[in-house]
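New to this. Please check this fold:
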Amino acid sequence: MAIASLSYVRLEMREPADWLWFGEQVLGFASRPAEGGTVRGTLCLAMDAMPFRYLIEPGEADRFAAAGWECADADAFGQSVEALREAGALTRLGSDVEAGSRGAVGLAFGVDPSGNAFELCHGRTVNEASFSSPIDGLRFVTGAMGLGHAVLPAPEFEATDAFYREVLGFGVSDELTLPPPVEGAPPQRIHFLHADNPRHHSVGLYNFPAPSGVVHLMAEVETLDDVGACLDRAKAAEAPIVASLGRHLNDGMVSFYMLAPGGIPIEYGYDGRQFDWSAFEPTRSTAGDIWGHEYNFPG
């Protein structure tokens, strides 16, 4: 499998400083100096020893800009670039300076059939400074499994699903079908796809658009108390809670969802199941949750 993990995400914000406070004081991320080659005013937010997991760049609109998918090594990166080129999805190769700004050795840019921009990288180096959250004792479940997962809008659903499986090499974990969001609309479909790590899914594909450019991003912590404490911090910060506390059916995650600055939905969770893919049979679900998760997403 070519893709090892979701290594980082890029956001564009009209007021990046709003994300600095929210990222540190609500989510518990740590700010780090931006690498060379980044735009002036760029923020780097870390969740572990990686230079950053969230790259917040100044922009004319608040939006999700790109997912950064990491390949295991230079060979896997080269194979993925060639696959993108053959599929007509390779936008361009990144320069050495651009790769350095991601803390990586190699970088490429692409776009999927639904118009979601993404980046491929390899050779990201860990930061010499150990991670220390502004929230005392808080640690995230990352490492080889990456920052968490991203659920992306995929109105061109079949073509996008085929692209992630056949071109980028993701494996299917679960195919979820839910009732239509409004009367007269088609059923909701979410395909959950795993990378080459034990996390249930690194990407989800949703067959409707999303106002911010992303359905949600997930961060996983080590204890249920960490989730509850973040829920208290989010409420104190008057962040909109767009899904109450609940447990998902397919990956077992106990989580809640909030809106971060710029309308970016964040799932904050604990206890996600991990899998041995050599002994796994993909599932088909018609319910998203075992309990909880009363949803109220914008749009």
Q: What stands out?
A: Residues 82 and 283 are 31 Å apart (CA to CA). Residues 143-292 form a domain with the 2,3-Dihydroxybiphenyl 1,2-Dioxygenase; domain 1 fold (CATH 3.10.180.10). The chain has two domains: 3-122, 143-292.
